[in-house]
Amino acid sequence: MKRPIEREPIKVRTNFFEVTKLPKTKITHYDVTISPVVPPRLNRKVFACFSEENKRILGGVKPVYDGKTNMFTHIPLPFEAASFIVKLEKVNAPVAKLRPPEIFKIVIRKARDINMEDLFQFLNAKGNMTNNCKMAINAMNIIISHEVSAKYPTLRNLYYTSHGSRSLGEGIEAWQGYYQSAHPTRGKMMINIDLRATAFYEGGPLIQMVARILGRRSPNDLCRGLSDRERQKVEKRIKNLRISDNCKPEIRRKFKIVKLTQTSASNTMFDGDNGNKIDVKTYFQNKYNRSLLYPFLPCVVVRKNNYLPIEFCNVIPEQRYMRKLNEIQTANMIKFTHQPPSARANNILAGLDVLNYRNNVCLRQFGMEISNNMAVVNARILPTPTIQYHQSSRKNRVQPNGGSWNLRDKKVINGATLSSWSVLAFLNSKILPDRVIKLFVRELITTCQDTGMNISERNPPIFRANPIGDTEESLKKAWLKAGDKAWGVKPQLILCILPNYGSDLYAEIKRVSDTVIGVATQCVQSIHTRNPKKQYCANVCLKINVKLGGENSFLIPEHIQFLADEPTILMGAGVTHPWSGDNEGLSYAALCGSVNVKASHYAASIRVQLGHTEIITNLANMVKELLKTFYQTCGLKPKKIIFYRDSVSKSQFKFLLKSELTAIKAACQSLEADYRPTITFVVIQKRHHTRFFPMERKYADRSGNCLPGTVVDMDITHPFEFDFYLLSHAGLHGTSRPTYYQVLYDENRFDANRLQTLSYNLCHIYARCTRAVSLVPPIYYARLAAKRARLYSFCNADTESSEGGKNVAITFEAVEELRKVMYFI
């Protein structure tokens, strides 16, 4: 496809919907306390009952409520403070817990009047973000969500519906969710609406779910009962699941599953009503006059000595599945969520029926109206940069078409020499014969030679290792044999061939090679060795080259003019946190910085800090390390620093700038008192819900997404701050997510076009592939380095603890020899 004229202004649709009419009068905010304390969903029921019963006292006002402590009205209520008693009827609950109360007390106190004028001033760049503005935006979010949250399962700003659900397998299904959030933009408020799916348990008979968990076609296939292994699998999956019994259709009691019995219903005994022992099968037959169809299956235990036959239980709908999906379920979820742009846009518009702005009583009451049409915004397409390869290449310069290119007729800019290496296969010779390994190695060597590397050792020794054996010992032997084969030359690389499973093995390989031996490793899955593809070998070659100190490509000087003018260091920083729910785990902070003037090679500095701490606590020392490395590598002191910071929420911007910008400046001045390079501090975010949809075919790529280089810096951006959305990569599957950039501090005086163009151009020199990527390389490298840090769980660490042990900064690094190269790639 012919690329349109670059920098041509175009129009794109986006999933923002304009608030065409805003409240003009003050909004009144009230604090609400509901006692006893119950979950938000029950709070909403209590509040709905209160609102319905007290229309006269409320003066005809219909308040909106967030399910917690905030309530808003369009006019003041007749009272400043009041308390009310609300009685709910037939509140069901699991018998394993205390039954929730049916009588509640609501206390309402006026908190403040929200003056909308502050928001109007802010939107028109005539005032700052005041507390009034924040409260007005919060009120709008609650106004648009009040009705929909009462109808659908709700998680913060997400509302899920079973309409169009799809089975993921084993009794789990994917539900479509709709996200909505009020956003201040230039001169107007917008509602951002997007799709978000999550997993729910399938409602219906529990016996059906048990059959699906075990991969049976129907409950009739369970006639042989369950083995201990099968019972444990089912119990693990359904533990804490909420169910109702169907003993009496007119009375549906609710329970929570504790476990399964180890015996079948026919053999599970308990004390009957008369004190005599009786089995569950006989008891239910006598009491409910129903014969069990599956007496050979275990019973559900809902509390001590309270048993229910599985066939007497129904799974209560609308229960989220909180466990990790297995591989098949994950693949099915990806199929469900990966929608091409046109389908996603249509489904977002269909979601307006769920969100129901047109007939929303709350919106009308507050004087709000929201457009049912997606916003059309101004965009531009940035020029594609030119990438430089070695001068001896038949094609030493390439200008990508559609965001990708290949290595055909190209040689890397600085090819490394590989003279001492070995191959370590973690599979036996029956599964992966030596001849297959040799064919793969031959193809890999040929590809590396063709792309400009020098492989002087063309017949590396091949060894075998047990994937569940002593990995450290196996790696050490492979390292020694590589040195012996090369007549004492220090080994540079161990090529590890892995089974097509086992992340633990990969982690141990990296831990040992990086921190114990100090040798680069390249892992490949065995499936790729059997019929080696040229493109796969080329991608492996790119990784090996930079791990050995080579450089793959760089941008021509005119396309990184800002870097070419004066020595400039690019830095990318990010923090990887422990898994959700792990309150004792550690967070991993990584900082990657360029070490040459062309930003084609990077070094990393890694620290471990207290879990869930977003601010990098030891940033000053990390920055100092990389500034020294830059100077030692190219003999120049950076005069400019561009600092890209990954994934920090807007609520933390002020604290982030105060802490981390101060640390950067302190690091510079600790090297020399008068060393003050100019700094630009940019925050990058990918976790947002903004999407773009091309309006004309000529502005779309083959996947239907907007073209790489599409940038939006008006209409839906901040009313006056320096920010933009950049779509730098070509779409592969689904709808591409642009990257959001916000400049918090800028001594280098970038204008929008210069920073956008520089960031876009940098996305073309990510060392691992021949594609433009969605993030600037220093951020990608920081993510890789932080991920690698997770694998070092057994490393020796120096711990620095502040008084009282409240702050921890653990320093650990790869072996010094590896720190000179991009070992983390």
From TrEMBL:
- Name under which the protein is recorded: Piwi-domain-containing protein
Recorded source organism is Rhizophagus irregularis
Upper lineage ranks? Eukaryota, Fungi, Fungi incertae sedis, Mucoromycota, Glomeromycotina
Task: Output the InterPro entries linked to this UniProt entry.
Answer: ArgoL1, ArgoL2, Argonaute_Mid_dom, Argonaute_N, PAZ_dom, Piwi, Piwi_ago-like
Q: Where is the PAZ domain?
A: 205-317
In terms of superkingdom, the source organism counts as Eukaryota
Membrane-traversing stretches: none
Task: List, for all copies, the residue spans of the domain called Piwi.
Answer: 493-790
* One MF term in the entry's GO annotations: RNA binding
Q: Name one Pfam family in it.
A: PAZ
Query: Which SMART domains does the UniProt record give?
Result: DUF1785, Piwi
